[in-house]
What does this fold into?
Amino acid sequence: MSEKRTGAQILCEALIMNGVDTMFGIPGGAIMPFYHAMWEYRSDLRHILCRHEQGAGHAAEGFARSTGRIGVCIGTSGPGTTNLVTPIADAWMDSTPMLAICGQVSSTVLGKDAFQETDITGITMPITKHNYLVKNINDIAYVVKEAIHIATTGRYGPVLVDITKDALQASAVPDYSKKIFLPGYRPTVTGSKKQIKAALSLMLKSKKPVLMIGNGVMMSDASAEIRVFAERYKIPVITTLHALGAFPEDHDLSLGMPGMHGWVHVNRAIQEADFLMNIGGRFDDRVTGKASTFAPIAKIVHVDIDPSEIGKNIEVEIPIVGDARIVTLSLLEEEPEEKLVAEFHKNAAEWLTYIRELQTKHQHKQQYLNRPDTSTMMPHDVYAALTKQMNTRGNYRVVTDVGQHQMWAAQLLDWYKPRTHITSGGAGTMGFAVPAALGVAVAHPEDTVWAIAGDGGFQMTNQEMIVVIQENIKNMKIAIINNGFLGMVRQWQELFEGKRYSGTPLTSPNFQMLAEAYGWTGITVESVDQIDAAIDRAYATDGPVLIDFRVEREVNVFPMVPQNKSIGEMITE
Amino acid sequence: MKIHTLVVLVQDHPGVLNRAVSMFRRRGYNIASLVVGHTETPGVSRMTIVVESENVEQVVKQLYRLVEVLKISDVTEDPVVDREMVLVKLHVTGQHRAEIVALTEVFTAKIVDVAQNTMVIEMTGGPAKVDNFIDVIRPFGIKEMMRTGRITMVRGGKGHSGAELIDQAAE
It folds into this structure.
């Protein structure tokens, strides 16, 4: 490697050396040298041309969340990079490993309000784990290595690298060997042995224990270890939105999702538990409800790789800083007295029986199926059919958008495998589903990837459908839960604002025709009896299919915890 | 609100001050004073941050999330040397000149500029002493004033050198 390369060639080689093989982006003036060089490396570095940088960013997120590998997106200077801001913020909130590569104007005009100049490092400082402005060709190789290292270690997150055009155009002999030097960045991955022992002995003293798992379990691939731990101690398991699939929902110990649209029995279990161990969740307000009322009796153990999450929202008895998988392995190494474990099993079994009674009484997954007018198509009918077909056919992944359809998907589909449920949780970004599903479909050509979106969110990013055609992607399907409203806002207006539907009724184009215009197969479903045939057809079609499910318009997501209330106070109808 | 003094060692990179200040702003923490400067170790800058917070532990943890932050110490309860400098320009007429000269001597301050109707005084001391000095000379008529903010160093052997942190990481 003693030959001279351009900065852009060095960028390509550094990306490949650090494990990147797929990127999503759009070219433009400042980033053009990178695109020029990329052509030479195309057999190792696949570039997928998106239609809007927001789409490229979400596609990179979908790629990253479904694989655990870094997702890479590219934008040119100015609007190209400001369009990446939303997915970067989304990746920040959901701890998604992402690398955003941005073109910047030449260093000679930087700071002079040049054409398409934007201070993107300044803009993204609060929503990236770290970011860089690279003005010197000799920094490119090292910065790429360091950026990917930061994004994919500790608590994952987005890192942005902004490179000036003249640095990309310059020539130099690259040095890829420089070792990573980060004196201020040493994530703690191994939990304190002492704290782990203390946590376990606290757990064994409890009579009503619950284990709550979050995004950290998914990100660290700790599902198998969590299962062994849960089974050894027979402790009931609660899965937050981002942990759906990390513990199989048909398992004897699985309780399901907590929080604002979690199940009554799950929230009641939390409120009555005398012990709660949260592994890899961050006690988001959508999980805790009013934080001061959350799990009032429980002694809480919090395992998180980010020390700042511990004690931020919920005060805890025992903090453990570490990687979810490594801490779970350490928990499994402990060998407490058999007598204690037997006593714990006995109590946990009684407790679980009690929770199951609550569940039987309160969990009505398909309550709307018992409606008087059978011709009405409820969203629930669609989800019931989808989950049945997905389970029968296997190998599926689901990407949801944000709103009612997202909560129904979380509640009504069955989640068995890690990284099969991908959604925008923390940021709640409408428009996430279609482009993120594109990223998932690229990463997993063997799986059928379903984007489920509302009619509102779908229209925010549906332009990415044409990318599926251009890239010849066959394994993506879209289900629109079309109720003619920005449904979740409408629901709040109905319940809390006297049904003043201000700004929520939504007119949409004919989605079937839109799909066909994009070269997709489009299907419209208007009644219950058409649902199964439509899904059958979607599966039978070798190529992308969109189904527009025109469901009953004013249906609410229940159960529900009103804003700033305790999760013990749920509205159930 | 409790007042805390934090000594923060950071990598001397462009933007590092911006990152730190931006974190305080967006999380709603109140900075009473912030001073940043070079240290004995090349590549390491040092900040003395005085912050008002009920939950300083969160402030410290959030600061640690910044990749370029090397070490944070809350020295609020430690024996420290605290210093701040102030430059004061006074409007001075002949009749008060002697009195002001006497006061500067009492406060071991220095007169660094004398003009026909003005005087500039440089004074260094602990924050309380600086406050006191300003109160005493205010009646004479302050035309301009600038305080530097506080810099802090722990007394005795316990210290905050960046050299060790840099060496460890380089290995």
Remarks:
- Chain B has a mean pLDDT of 93.
- Residues 3-78+156-170 of chain B form a domain with the Alpha-Beta Plaits fold (CATH 3.30.70.260).
